[in-house]
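Hi R.,

As promised on Friday, here is the backbone we talked about, encoded as structure tokens. Could you run it through your design pipeline when you get a chance and send me back a sequence?
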């Protein structure tokens, strides 16, 4: 009976699922950030800042 209870209460594999969810969240955040950074307005603003700094 103890062995059965130990097997039922074990959470082996949960860390793998947590890493998977964390990885998916990080990828979604990176995709959103990439979409923002590569937008025309942000590129124009960054170009203006760099031009002003160098010129």
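Update: got your reply. Pasting your designed sequence below so it's all in one thread:
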């Amino acid at each position: 009976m103890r062995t059965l209870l130990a097997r039922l209460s074990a959470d082996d594999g949960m860390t793998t699922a947590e890493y998977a969810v964390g990885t998916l969240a990080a990828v979604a955040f990176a995709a959103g950030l990439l979409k923002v950074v590569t937008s025309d307005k942000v590129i124009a603003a960054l170009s203006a800042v760099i031009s002003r700094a160098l010129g």
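One thing I noticed while checking it: The chain has a mean pLDDT of 86.

Thanks again,
M.
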